[in-house]
Amino acid sequence: xxxxxxxxxxxxxNERKSLHKKVVGGLAWTxxxxxxxxxxxxxxxxxxxxxxxxxxxxxxxxxxxxxIVANVMAEFGIGMAVLQMREMAAEIVAQIASVATLFxxxxxxxxxxxxxxxxxxxxxxxxxxxxxxxxVTFLLTGLESVPxxxxxxxxxxxxxxxxxxxxxxxxATCTVFCAYRGMGYWAIAAGNLAGRSCAVALLFYWKPTSFxxxxxxxxxxxxxxxxxxxxxxxxxxxxxxxDSIVVGRTLGQASVGAYRIANSxxxxxxxxxxxxxxxxxxPLFARIQADKELTVRYFLLLTQGLTMVLFPLxxxxxxVAPDAVHVLLGPTKWNATTEPLRWxxxxxxxxxLSYLNGQVLTAxxxxxxxxxxxxxxxxxxxxxxxxxxxxxVGAVALTWLVMSPLNVFAGTFQAxxxxxxxxxxxxxxxxxxxxGSLSMTAxxxxxxxxxxxxxxxxxxxxxxxxxxxxxxxxxxxxxxxRGRVMQYFDLLRRLRSGTDAVV
Length: 503
Hints:
Layout: H1 13-51, H2 54-75, H3 78-84, H4 90-121, H5 127-134, H6 136-153, H7 157-180, H8 185-206, H9 220-250, H10 253-287, H11 292-319, H12 321-329, H13 338-351, H14 357-363, H15 367-388, H16 393-402, H17 404-419, H18 423-449, H19 457-480, H20 482-497
Helix pairs in contact: 1-7, 1-10, 2-4, 2-5, 2-6, 2-8, 2-9, 2-10, 3-6, 3-9, 4-5, 4-6, 6-8, 7-8, 9-10, 9-15, 10-11, 10-13, 10-14, 11-13, 11-18, 12-19, 13-16, 14-17, 15-16, 15-17, 18-19, 19-20
């Protein structure tokens, strides 16, 4: 029986310097990919919203809910096991690739059979055909899990970023074209399937993966690790999608369509940046898992930088939600989006704290706690959303904020304990973003109170709020936290000179 042992060796100085350069290079590549994705995905969503109806988005959202959860089940945490268990031999990886592909085939077959039941659950007959066609994504998930993990293990951010950019471009182009051709909800399904297929083909081309007959005694440890990760992800995915499930079930297609647009507007800017960092930090924390000092330094530095960027984006959108919906989506069709957008945006800012938590806990092999916490959320959250749905989509969105101690703060405390940085040090890392956000809120509220602003129309009013809010935020950072902001510019300078950059 093969035993895979964790690497307990701290990094040498030359390895640290090389790693720092790879991290910053990875951030540059990933940032470029995320900005490309942002530049095409957000406008394409707005264009599609103008071409399609809330009912079309509702059907796509119902199918998307199912596939997000089901694809996690199909992947079974195998990619994370390959990434985190760095001593895994090549023959073990080949066996795991075979298991991942097998899971993909099984998921595709079961999904085809389950499609009529899903359509019946949502009272939407058209959903059956959509689910059956898009079931091929299960196979794509199984095929991509090992090549993706191997590229991440190699810290090959260039190829990972290119694959993501091509997927975003393909998805946006196909979706808008099909929507323009009058394909309705099929436009969204076709766009997602086309983009995913292109990305998987590229990953497999760059990192060809061999297959071997599984010998279960040899792959028991990776599969156990993957099972814990998969259970956490499945429970977390269901929990995160329970709001849309409840809205679709209780309030109908139009309501879930409006709710989806609110989610997209609130999370797209935040998640593009958050996932950009996660793309780099996942492999990073896996590489330095045994180096406690370096883990603490990266954890605090990245938390501070991430929240300084994400807090103003999320909280600012919540403050200007009514004007933003009117300007971006039109004056009447999407009015129901405003209230959920406000609460989801606030929660998106708070959720920024959790982007690094899961990666740190996984790298430190704390997957069992994360799994149990996700299961608790899986049990509690659907009932909370069901109760809140009596008061409409706004109340469902507000539930995320009310339950944030369970969904965000518990994991944050565990991550702080796992790395051993201390609560005070962590709160100190959050201080610039919190203080800046308070200043931004005051500035936006002042802009809303200006009598002359009402005569400028919605666009002028929105521009004034954004300008004053940004000025208030940047003023606090520039005056009271200038040293911390300059630390990131100094980091880049030190990297270019080849010195240890994480200070």
